[in-house]
Design brief:
heterodimer; A: 287 residues; mainly alpha; 15 helices; B: 294 residues; MetI-like fold; globular
Chain lengths: 287, 294
Amino acid sequence: MSLTPKQAQSAAPTGRSRDKLQQWAAGIVLTVFGVAMILPFIWMLLSSFKTEGEIKRIPPTLWPESFTFENFGKLFTEMDFGTYLTNTLLITLFSFVGLLLNAMAGFGFAKYSFKGREKMFLLVLATMMIPGQVTMIPVYLILNSVSLTNTMLGIVLPGFTSAFGIFLFRQFMSTLPDEIMEATRLDGASEYRLFAQIVLPMSKPILAVQAILTFIGGWNSFLWPLIIANDEKLYTLSVGLSLLKGQHGTNFALQMAGAAFMVVPIMIIFVFFQKHIIENYNISGMK
Amino acid sequence: MKGPSRAAPYVFIGPTLILLAVFSLLPILVAVYISLTDMDLAGLANYSSIKFVGLQNYADVLGDPVFLLALRNTLFYVVIGVPLVIACSLGAALLINFGRSRAFKVFRVVYYLPSVTNVVAVAVVWSYLYNPGIGLFNYVLTSLGFDKVAWLTDPTIAKLSLILLALWRSIGLNMIIFIAALQGIDRSYYEAAQLDGASNWQQLTRITIPMMRFAIFFVSVTTMIGWLQFFEEPFVMTQGGPLNGTVSASLFIYQNGFQFSNFGYAAAGSFVLFFIIIAVTLLQLRLQRKQAEE
């Protein structure tokens, strides 16, 4: 077994070693830029454990002299990060209702023929092209006219449905076999039971991806909470963090702790589920 | 396939259609209307005080030096940012796809990581890195013997600093799209080329890039649309300063709408931006069609 490659190598020694060299070169280039990509995160983490005095020192210390958790404590005592966290988790929870609605719509478009289906689906896709800047002000005015500004419902409603999400659900669900659904119907199941007990379990791959993306989106939500919430009681983590940046402009240790508090959970979730997220783009047919 | 219940499909799609109608379609009509009025904070409290002003807002906004500066800044972001994003994410995708070792899969995660993290948190971190006195970047520059850089206080450098941050954030997503496209290319093309003795470079320019044409087009259109709406980076890091040097069209619209409560004026500005986005997208579609015909 070891003979053939060796023979090949002696036949074309330059080509093979050149190929190996190119592999190494690619790896080294990627490593250098990769370090640059995660450097801000490393610097954030290290700085978040430094004291307020140490962080102002020049030259800066790379490794914290003594790890302090004081900054993280201050997030909850000097700032109201407990409330922000609760709000963020609530918004994330609500956005899962939106996820279910998207799945239902995707199923409706994928597996039923009804009057106006194509036109309605095109309309859904067309909403993707409307820039947020155009709808931002009227949506605020609409929510204001029904007294939903400064409420949790007002924060979550505008982002409830996602045209792209509906599109992905439709793409996936149209590949599900009709025979299984027909058989379930013959057993006397209603359309809604069919959806809940057959279609949803069969759609696990796309549901998993969408659930992760929904979580990340909810956790990171910034613009609507910022516009709709006047009251600090409704602030999310990202709005709270921009408040912190304004109030403690020079305390970078505290700022880094706030940033780390937001970023690290998402990083862990992402690294854990990255395979699903990355494969999402194969499901969407982007080839 | 016909379901036994005729109402079922409408029950499934109804809720989302209603929400999309209320939060995507109706707002367009509302925006058209208010862009023709002098709607402001007083108008919000009392609808009867709103006056119809015709196209006055459009005339005003197109003559507003700050809006024109915002448009020029946006052009700057697009012209420099979009080619950089495409080149860097394509480069990363090619290198990662080129690697045969499993270790290369780690790079996908590393390069994608900035894309999933929160923009405010990231802007807070980069503001610290860019800090003129105690920031890491200036420390590294001075210890290497270079001068300090006014990362966020010089109007032109500040724009470039924001582009660097946005570039860092947007490489990952586009890279993944490119990798998916690369893996969709039939291996047999490469095998045939290798038999003919084509070098790696020839395979790249004669097979890979032409086969990637659609993916590159897709990424350029979406990236262009995204950068025309450049908002969060200047909003969190510079608030449009110094001297409106980093204000983008989107930030101008936000500031006029929600900080100065000139809703009618801001809505007019948002339609100007919308028309620019449509025009640029149509132009790209046209160029693509022309290229495909050739």
